[in-house]
Design brief:
By secondary structure, the chain is of the alpha/beta class. It contains 17 helices and 14 strands. It is globular.
């Protein structure tokens, strides 16, 4: 079998997690390619170089390599700049391989990579699979107040990707429905393949040292983990936390730990306040809870697992999520989750069984659900035990099993050759 070409222009699987735009997509590409490698299936991952140091081709796993293509300056760029680099990146991919048809298929991740993959499909004559990870029309439809809206050119590219790719891989039933409702995707060309979680990394851990280092002995801890931007809803949690403190709804000391750093959108949306982190810190001061809120910045996977194990509750108040990987990672650590009822989150967070999901973004509603869990030790134990059980149903091995089934399907006969917009 020829290697698989994986296009992930802006989300390298070897990038440090938690910083800037790096997050769930980076985890997804890395985990899938590592699992494919364990099965002897080779992958070549094409990503843009973001550092002047390091080799052009990096081994990710025994049968998996990352090609770092020097397109544009070797530094982190925002996505508006990346769009202008797509033709150059496509040329760099084609020039980096020698054989005329070196791969058995191409699988693109995110709309930027979809633009590139459309041209690779034609150049190599191979099937094209695409995973969106997020969708512009969904984000705009559910945007938080003050959020940066996704541009029209992104929507145009996504629409063309939906029309011309051989198969769309959705992370949840909800994402599949959004592809059909908002982009007119054919049901026969959309397949649902949920992400997984590494149960050897994300598992219940002893956190005595971390608790002591943070000075949280005796406190009930609430954790938020994600990119800092309006979309992720951290403001809702801060206001809910303030209500919990002011009302004394929980009869023990409370602490909130915020993990993550500003994304490009977060920096733009709150530029006048020094970015989204600066805005949230100012909000914590104005609410009188600054001393009980700790911003720890980005952390690596093992560190994230330790924080999630430390948490009594993980809160995911996003306005939209394709899947919501951090909720699954929290549950794998045995931590109950309170989450927005958006995207794939309800498929992971079982309302009333492993935590709660909420339609509203009213902070009072979040405060009430968080307090229920923190005030009832038996409920917390039940949620914790069931959370771990739910997480064991989502493994990267199962994800790859399903992907291989999809890769084996014949290309859709309804497609006609056409270039992606842009």
């Amino acid at each position: 079998m020829k290697p698989l070409a994986i296009v992930s222009m802006h989300a390298s699987p070897i990038a440090p997690l938690g910083a800037g735009e790096n997050g769930g997509m980076n985890v997804y590409v890395r985990a899938v390619c590592e699992e494919l490698s364990r099965r002897g299936i080779a992958t070549e991952i094409f990503s843009r170089r973001v550092s002047p140091k390091g080799p052009d081709r990096v081994r990710l796993a025994e049968h998996s390599w990352v090609r770092q293509l020097e397109v544009g300056p070797p530094e982190e760029l925002d996505k508006t700049q990346l769009f202008d680099l797509l033709p150059e990146f496509t040329d760099a991919v084609l020039q980096s391989v020698d054989a005329p048809a070196p791969f058995s298929l191409v699988h693109s991740h995110y709309w930027l990579s979809g633009w590139v993959a459309a041209r690779l499909k034609d150049a190599w004559g191979v099937p094209w699979f695409h995973t969106a990870h997020t969708l512009a029309r969904v984000k705009n439809e559910r945007a938080a107040s003050g959020a940066v809206l996704e541009p029209d050119h992104r929507i145009a590219v996504e629409q063309a990707v939906v029309r011309n790719s051989d198969r769309l891989i959705a992370s949840s039933l909800e994402e599949a429905a959004d592809l059909q409702r908002l982009y007119g995707a054919s049901r026969s060309r959309v397949s649902v393949v949920p992400p997984g979680v590494d149960l050897t990394v994300f598992r219940p851990r002893r956190t005595d040292r971390l608790r002591a280092r943070l000075g949280l002995e005796g406190a009930r801890v609430i954790v938020f983990a994600g990119r800092l931007e309006r979309l992720k809803g951290a403001e809702t949690l801060l206001r809910a936390f303030s209500l919990l403190v002011q009302t004394g709804a929980v009869d023990q000391p409370l602490a909130l730990v915020v993990i993550g750093d500003d994304s490009h959108n977060g920096a733009v949306e709150s530029r006048e306040l020094g970015g989204e982190r600066g805005r949230l810190q100012a909000l914590a001061r104005s609410l009188g809870v600054e001393s009980q809120v700790t911003f720890v910045g980005p952390v690596a996977q093992v560190g994230l697992a330790e924080y999630l194990s430390l948490a009594d509750v993980c809160v995911v108040p996003s306005y939209s999520e394709s899947f919501g990987l951090v909720a699954l990672e929290a549950e794998a650590c045995g931590t109950p989750v309170v989450a927005a009822r958006v995207g794939g989150l309800p498929s992971v967070v079982k309302d009333g069984l492993t935590g709660y999901t909420l339609v509203s973004h009213d902070p009072a509603h979040y405060a009430e659900r968080i307090a229920r869990i923190l005030q009832d030790d038996e409920l917390h134990r039940c949620f914790s035990r069931r959370s771990r059980l739910v997480a064991t149903q989502f493994t990267w091995a199962e994800t790859v099993d399903r992907l291989l089934v999809e890769y084996g399907r014949p290309a859709s006969p309804e497609l006609q050759p056409a270039a992606v917009a842009g």
